[in-house]
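Following up on my earlier thread - several people asked me to post the actual chain instead of describing it. Fair enough. Here it is, all 416 residues.
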Amino acid sequence: MSSSRDGRYRSGLVWGALLLASAASAVLQLSGKITLSLSAIVTIVNEGTRWICVLLFFLMIWVVRFRDRSSGKTENDLPLLKYWLLGFVPFLVLAVSLIVVVDPHARFGGGLFPTMYPSRTAKYELYHRLATTPQVVILGSSRAMRLQPTYVQQTLGYTAFNWALESGESEDFVIALRYMLSQNETLPEAFLIEVAPPLPQGVDLVVEHAPIQLLPWLDRDVAWRTILDQLKTPLSFQALTDAVYIPLRMLVFGSTQGVSTFGPEGQFIHDPMLVLTDRNALLQNNIENLPAPHCQQLDGGGIRNIEEFAQIATEHHSAMIFYVSPRHPAYYSAVMLPDAEYLTCQAALTEYMHALEQRFDNITFLDFTQLQSVNELGQEGFIDSHHLTPLGSDRLVDAAAQAIRKSIDWAREQRR
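Reply from S.P.:
Thanks for posting it. Predicted structure:
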């Protein structure tokens, strides 16, 4: 009896130590990032879900052992391997079911929950529904997602569509261009394209999050990687943490408040970032934890994509305005300006873009890194260090207005 008690005591210590180690890892991950601002909730929920999954796994094994001990079986009846398997199999079934039902990467067509990157599904569907080809299409990352097509039409008189995506990179630009051509042989007259150093290609994010219906417009190797990713998604730990994160985010912010939704022209209807009202805390968090990008040279894959985009657009008599989005002046002064490696990287992008301008009559480059008309708005112009408010985005459109008009004039002259 004593040895049986000692065995249960030792095994309890083992499982307890594992649980405490997982909990300690979660605390260490979150240390230094917990503030009283609402913005901290995003960090906590996002980083904490992976550790919740680990804790659930060990808790399930603990439950199996507890039930077995209560039935009177001894330590020798069920060895550690069997306990592990009895805990792992139901955990695996639960995990795969959760991934398929929540479908965080838009792999199974469930549609019951929003995806991790909702714009990557929504923008293609919205463009497909357009009755006519817009005159201006906006491409870029989340930094360009608040540029409002309605404002472009009100101030410049051109119809527009916002195709900017969360973490959108040059690979996304080319895929969008191919998709547009499949819908209509006539491309938009002008593209307003947000870029940033080191001009990353962004293939990995396409592989992990592109809707499966986009396969016909992907490069062959990217399409093959996307298919393989679809096959492994049910067993992906990243997919599991995302499947836990999405319901948690909806629970924290409400069923709709935590979800991005978009209107017919690709503009935000509901923007979760605007709910995070403590913008000073967001800015400070970025200054402390978000370094400036470094590179000795631009991404070769990104350059190839830009070259392909420029060639196709030129063949179809479309003009392009590439621009660097504004950064908050406090972030720029504290993080970017003192960083020699960032300045080298930024200079490489500027040099390449000016070279493109020399090669193509239909390309304009605008460096808005420090745009005075936005900077003077202060916190009214920025959500954090990188993302503009709708008002700040309108100021950016105003600054680009002359280039947009010139680009439209060029396209119309070529299409006569």
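The chain has 15 helices and seven strands. That should answer part of your original question.
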